[in-house]
Design a protein that fits this description.
The protein has 320 residues and is α/β, with parallel strands linked by helices. Helix content is 43%, strand content 17%. The strands form four sheets. Strands 3-2-1-4-5-6-11 form a seven-stranded parallel sheet, with helices on both faces. β1, α1 and β2 form a beta-alpha-beta unit. The longest helix is centred in the first third of the chain and has 22 residues. It is globular, with a radius of gyration of 19 Å. It starts with a strand and ends with a helix. The relative contact order is 0.14.
Amino acid sequence: MTVLVTGAAGFIGFHTAKRLCLDGHDVVGIDNLNDYYDVVLKQARLKELASLPGFRFLKMDIVDKPALLELFREQRFTEVVHLAAQAGVRYSLDHPDVYGQSNLVGFLNVLEACRHHRPEHLIYASSSSVYGSNSKMPFSVEDPVDHPVSLYAATKRANELLAHSYCHLYGLKASGLRFFTVYGPWGRPDMAPFKFTEAILKGLPIDVYNQGEMARDFTYIDDIVESIARLRARAPGAGVNQLFNIGRGEPIALLDFIECLESALGRQALRNFMPLQDGDVVKTWADISALQAWVGFRPQVSVETGVGEFVKWYRQFYQA
């Protein structure tokens, strides 16, 4: 198969492209290599991918519709794994235009390309943030998601609605994946595991929001990639946009997560307790029954194991 992976230089995109190549597929990866976080890290991921058979990279922005349509005409992709997006809840408070372009216009361009060139399956990234201020736990794909509390969340919910419309109108097959707090080797510098690790090793305080009264369904990257691999192998029917939570299915208190990091690093964190930030939610918890029912898999890497693997990679990559 020839698979398009958008956002291939990103955290999840890198790991997904790598798995596809190792499984014997031809992969075309695209990314605009923006400077939202360290471009050197993105380039290092691409260097790893370049050593794999079947991988080809093109620097391209999904906002550039003519270029994207030309790529689809040239390649005739069997599948599309759309992971490119402007990430980050807090960044969206000050940079709304970026989210409108990448997450709305960009995704619409991907849907248009799929409409005209008919890949067998479109898999796209959504987010647990779509659940917003929902208080019912765990979050289920059957729950209403009408009250996002950040612009980022609103764009991800809009993606789900756009995909539903395109599937209904044009018979596409799509799977939307609501990721829950993904972490692991090659992770994003703007995420808590990376920021906390960097600060602890430098002896700097870490910002702990909502006075530490928070919990996240931390999900290790290998479980994310395995979920994508299994979902690729089982597309929904024509005209269907199917949604899945991809999480560990077990919320971890933020303070417990910090203790795991401290143990793996062999150092204590200096905690700077702060109020809840605009756009944040207090707790996330994934109901993964839909994923289990569809592909017979549930994420299984413990936070202790996952944090240990992340710290091992961080120390090696940054020689820390």
